[in-house]
Design goal:
- It is a single chain.
- β2 (54-57) and β3 (65-68) form a beta hairpin.
- It contains 6 helices and 3 strands.
- The protein has helices spanning 2-16, 28-40, 45-48, 76-85, 102-112, 116-147; strands spanning 22-23, 54-57, 65-68.
- With 153 residues, it is mainly α.
């Protein structure tokens, strides 16, 4: 619910500013955490593909806004180190330290694991494989609909 509300606010602000897109700072670490959480919830290929580099979000019936995640290949620690080097200010969501949230618990579990780096690479590899499978599934669905003569306006 909090994520949906946050995205609604972002979409509303993007529209107000007439922005072409919204850029968020999700990193490879966030992607791996997402995949691990979705594994725990037994998601299929689409869920295991993790977060998309580009998606659309909307605030109700308003026109959707492009949401871009340009940092999905970058590690969180590297991003923070770079921001420190260039002395750039950034905002860290206080929820990132609140263990009531599943993501925080998963993040801490990954960080504490002796196989944390190996698990991170494996999770990111799984996301890539699932993303490629999802593309194939989408093509099959489109071909099936096309064979049925389905048309969308």
């Amino acid at each position: 619910a909090a994520r949906a509300a946050r995205y609604r606010l972002l979409a509303r602000e993007a529209e107000r500013w007439r922005a072409e897109a919204i850029l968020v700072a999700h990193t490879a670490d966030d992607q791996a955490e997402t995949v691990l959480m979705r594994m725990a919830h037994r998601s299929g290929a689409r869920g295991l593909s993790g977060m998309a580099e580009e998606t659309l979000i909307a605030d109700g019936a308003r026109a959707p806004q492009r949401l871009l995640r340009p940092l999905l290949t970058q590690r969180r620690a590297a991003l923070r180190a770079y921001l420190g080097e260039i002395r750039a200010a950034f905002i860290d969501d206080p929820g990132n330290d609140d263990s009531r949230f599943e993501r925080v618990r998963v993040r801490r579990r990954l960080a504490a694991s002796p196989a944390g780096e190996e698990a991170m690479r494996a999770l990111l590899g799984l996301a890539g494989d699932a993303r490629r499978l999802t593309v194939l599934l989408d093509r099959l669905d489109a071909a099936r609909l096309d064979a049925l003569g389905a048309r969308f306006n």
